[in-house]
Amino acid sequence: MIAPTAMTIFSPAIERAIEALTTLPTIGRKSAQRLVFHLLRQPSDEVERIADALRNLKQQVRYCSVCYTFTEQDPCPICTSINRNRQTICIVEQPSDVFAIERTGEYHGLYHVLHGALDPLQGITAERLKIEPLIERLRAEHIEEVILALNPTVEGEVTTHYLVKLIAPVGVRITRIARGVPIGIDLEFADEATLSRALSGRSDVK
Q1: Any domain includes 106
Q2: Residue 66 zone, left/alpha/beta (φ > 0; ψ -120 to 50; rest)
Q3: Is the pLDDT of residue 122 over 60?
Q4: Within a domain: residue 1?
């Protein structure tokens, strides 16, 4: 007798939920299946609470029109804060990197989120990143230092060198975080102590 496949074991609703969850980062089919079964065991009001939170997430959170991090107000609280050092901009790849650096308590300047790194093989060109708005900010605002805090990956290094060539003519100081962040580790996964040392030990980029 031929064993039934997953498509015949699960109802269409369960299968759709599993397939939907597998589109999330790091979630494989087995993990998605466990999550779906967990949700099915929960009270209906708890599942509704989760669904409402996800709907509100998409409805209320947007990009900051200045730094391009995620925010519910525009401009974001960091860009509008009078307590931030407005002469320094830290450039990161993703909004999650902003949250990682903020947890250190080491940095008190502004941010600019690129939303990725250059990767021509994956079709990620300079036009797809928030590079042009960055250069416009540097020309319009009185910025004294730009900190390059991109992930220590091949793509991050390529993007760093590309940005240096664009920013150098503007005439601001260009630094990069120290090598306290291990090669191949995204900033959002680095611990606060490591990021703190990397920020305080940043060096000039020539």
Answers
A1: yes
A2: alpha
A3: yes
A4: no
